[in-house]
Amino acid sequence: MNPLTTEELAFFKHFGYLIKPKVLNASTCNELVDLMWQSAPASLQRHDAQSYQPVPKADWSDDSLRFVQDDKWQYRALGTDQPLIDVMTHPQLWQWGEQLLGNGNIRAPTPGGEPMGSKGPAWPGGPVDPQFTDGVRGIYATLPNPGRRDAKDALHTDGHPFHFSWVCLLEDCPPESGAFKVWPGSHRRFYPLFPMPFDQTRIPFYDHLPSHKGILHSQAYLDEVKAVEADTDAVDVWGSQGDVILWHHRLGHMAGHHKGHQQSIRQALLFDYNHIDLDAMRCDPTPTDPWRHWSAALRAADITIFSEDLMTAQRLPALAQHAP
């Protein structure tokens, strides 16, 4: 058990993410990968790397508990089963979470509860809402797809309310192989552009008013997305089995393109941490202090110059050592 240092807390505040290597042990990761392969489409053969390619349409699945399409394979049905809950409540991850939200302030998952995908989408025809779960989001796999070798990165921010999220690598993931990507510091630029501190504004759907539904973005936000993509290099969070990244709910991010340079499958466990008082917090207007709803320890972490070792571990160049 190693608590986050004051420097790491300050790094999270400034840059919106933190990479921590080798948190989960191999046996835990392998157990989850074994469970994932029980849901594999017929075209994938675990011990035949040549089969690691986009799934043919005949094997696609629109089932929100087991979604398979093209190079995406997402298994949510086990999201509240004990092996996945055990990772979500891993003592080391929980300790770090409480450093960010305060002791006793994390909403606990419900073993045997409703997994993500059990309820409807975020809006008609939209994606499954990650807030509709009593546990983890699920195990998400990205397959090699040479057709994406020239694909451009495009960030987004999540629309559902939560404080921060974890992405846990269950197998080794080389660079440009579908790993999570983040735009450092973008959370501080996007945060004040939302009228609510955790939600994003949504347009209700009506059958007789079908033209608009889903997330409503302000022009200021859309302009800032373009600005961040133009002036900030994304960090490709590739890594080794057991590595984790935590990231702020307003951070610009994307699921990286697996460009097919190596025959590997990006397999990761994703889940969110919420404050037990999120229901009340989300109804406030966006506060001037972006850390009002976080722990005293995090609010007090005000370091602005970071060590070379930390910057290197977080994949940032020396020029970024001095936080903006």
Chain-wise SSE layout:
Blueprint: H1 6-15, E1 17-20, H2 26-37, E2 66-69, E3 72-75, H3 82-88, H4 91-101, E4 138-142, E5 164-169, E6 180-182, H5 186-190, E7 202-203, E8 214-215, H6 219-231, E9 235-236, E10 244-248, E11 253-255, E12 266-273, H7 278-281, H8 296-300, H9 308-313
Antiparallel strand pairs: 1-10, 2-3, 3-4, 4-12, 5-10, 5-12, 6-9, 6-11, 7-8
Provide the CATH superfamily: q2cbj1_9rhob like domain
According to DSSP, the number of beta strands is 12
Largest sheet: 7 strands, antiparallel
Task: List unreliable stretches of 5+ residues.
Answer: none
Task: Note the gap between the termini.
Answer: 31 Å
What is the CATH C level class, in words? Mainly Beta
Summarize model confidence as the mean pLDDT: 95
Estimate the global geometry from the Cα principal axes: globular
**CATH-defined topology:** Jelly Rolls
Q: In which order are the strands of the major sheet placed?
A: 1-10-5-12-4-3-2
**Total helical segments:** 9
Q: Which structural class best describes the helix and strand composition?
A: alpha+beta
Return the string of H and E elements. Answer: HEHEEHHEEEHEEHEEEEHHH
- Our Rg estimate from Cα atoms comes to 19 Å
Tell me the strand percentage band.
Answer: 5-15%
Total discrete domains: 1
CATH architecture: Sandwich
